[in-house]
Amino acid sequence: MDPAQPTASFVYGEDDRRRQVLHVLEPVARPEPRPAVVLFHGGGLTSGTPLQDLDWAEPLAEHGYVVFMAGYRLFDPRAGTDRWPAQLDDARRAIRWIRARADDFNVDPVRIGAMGHSSGGHLAGLLGTTDGPTETDPRLAGASSRADCVVALSGDADLLVPYPDPATTRTLNALLGGTVEQVPDLWREASPAHNVDQRTVPFLIIHGNADQAVPIRMARNLAAALAQASIEHVLAELPAGHMDICSHEAIQALWNAFLADQLHPER
Questions:
Q1: Its pTM surpasses 0.85
Q2: How many CB atoms lie within 10 A of CB 30?
Q3: d(CA 197, CA 168)
Q4: Most buried by CB count within 10 Å: which residue of 70, 108, 197, 251?
């Protein structure tokens, strides 16, 4: 495995708080383009930073991936700023930005995986099941916003499944601009499980069966939708809770095998 090089940072959007930043971790240079993995951090779409996933980024870079840790605008429940779909818009723009500048990072633009935990897994899931609207920036207009594969850990895959904590539901009501009864179509549009079709990419879904924050039923519903559409996928249910799944000894082996099969870092 190749040792990772130091992290560099690039702004991919115009948010004056510098939320739209990509931190890049690159393997040792080689002539052939490498696949990329884009990490989206968790934090309920209201908190968190991209560098919180550095412990995952470093081993991925050592396995031969160019790793991008993506920041995005965060919803402020008190001020009501940066409501949905700002976070998804940013995630889509990040993928397009990387594709448009693939040569700058020696990245193969048709081998880009999206990965995240919790709300990061939610965003990654939507990058595998949906396409963004037409990009107005001419520099990005020709680049697809869809990932080529997805690794979703403890992700919010089906927002129509009730959350155990009422505070989470209240935050989602504010984020989406209404309750599930008031704007059901918007809640479905924001759920990977309700957007699966024949264009959906391969998925690795990892979820703890003791998760008390994001019910495992969400992961099972996504897996069922993928199976119904005959989309390649793996659902791994582990004996872990929402956060301790991040340190479960099996997870890195699971995603290493999946990403290697989908993105082929050896090529």
A1: yes
A2: 10
A3: 28
A4: 70
